Amino acid sequence: MKSKIFKLLAILFLLVGGFACKNDNDKMGSIKIQCNITGTVDPNIASIAHPDLVNAVCCEYQPDPIYDGKNPHRWTITLFMAKGTDCTKLAPIITLSPGSTITPAVSGAVHDYTKGVDWTLTAPDGSTVFYTVFASDNNIVSIKIQCNATGVVDPNIVSIALPNIVHALIYEHTPYPNYGGIPECWSPHEWWITLFMEKGTDCTRLAPIITLALGATMTLESGPGEPITPVVPGTVYDFTKGVHWRLTAPDGSTVFYSVRAYNREIP
């Protein structure tokens, strides 16, 4: 009888253990490293995973020859974790592509990712790639750009993501070719976007994650003689005054975006 009881307990233990492992795997959030600006996928890290991983923004910076090697091939990665995650004691699982090695041995090791953690990777061809990885426990909400009046979806911006978005009002304004003889540039193709944030959100310091369609590029709208500044996902802007973006579509056409944000209820 005791033997049968022990066997039954052993079977139950294995079943419970098996289900527990399955649940853990089901909850594991995993991302591949893909640049939000260019769409390039990192061939050296297959994935970064953690049970509380919600999303990420990744930017790839290629070496610039004029800096004589002082501007190395680098990835900057921000991991967005579930609210309440202790990002000062984070242990993500890093799966490398065959032939790649990384130092320090960070996979499964606990680090404070709020301050950024530097990884150095040696690729299969012997080249070196650097990674700076941050983590934040601010949940993000992602919206696509779709005109509230016509239902038209913008093909050039895949999504805009921020923590605390409650709602968005989006309108597409297309050019008027015969607008009183005024050149078309006076009535450009423009999207007007109003983001309504949770009460208390500091809209003077918002860092949106903009994911562009492959082949599209975006800069801040600038006046004559002003420098051209690329829009980098995760950059902080004051959206209470309005932020203006100029996008060059894959077909070479120009689209403008005027974006504002408010931390109040929808009027």
Tags for this model:
single chain, 267 residues, mainly beta, Immunoglobulin-like, 2 domains, five-stranded mixed beta sheet, 1 helix, 16 strands, globular, disordered N terminus
The number of domains is 2
In CATH, the architecture of the largest domain is Sandwich
Order of strands in the sheet with the most strands? 3-4-8-7-6
Radius of gyration: 23 Å
Spans where pLDDT lies below 50 across 5 or more residues: 1-26
Distance between the termini: 73 Å
Give the tally of β-strands. 16
Question: Which band does the percent of strand residues land in?
Answer: 35-45%
Shape: globular
Given the structure, what is the number of helices? 1
The helix content is under 10%
SSE class: mainly beta
What characterizes the major β-sheet?
A: 5 strands, mixed
- Within the CATH hierarchy, at the fold level, what is the topology of the largest domain? Immunoglobulin-like
Helix and strand run: HEEEEEEEEEEEEEEEE
Quickly name the level 1 CATH class of the largest domain: Mainly Beta
Task: Sum this structure up briefly.
The protein has 267 residues and is mainly β. Helices cover 10% and strands 36% of the residues. It has one helix and 16 strands.
What does this structure look like?
- Strands 3-4-8-7-6 form a five-stranded mixed β-sheet, with no helix packed on it. Strands 11-12-16-15-14 form a five-stranded mixed β-sheet, with no helix packed on it. Strands 1-2-5 form a three-stranded antiparallel β-sheet, with no helix packed on it.
- Mean pLDDT is 79; it is low at 1-26.
- 10% of the residues lie in helices and 36% in strands.
- By secondary structure, it is mostly beta strands.
- 25% of the residues are buried.
- The chain is built from one helix and 16 strands.
- The protein has two domains: 29-136, Immunoglobulin-like (Sandwich); 141-262, Sandwich (Immunoglobulin-like), CATH 2.60.40.
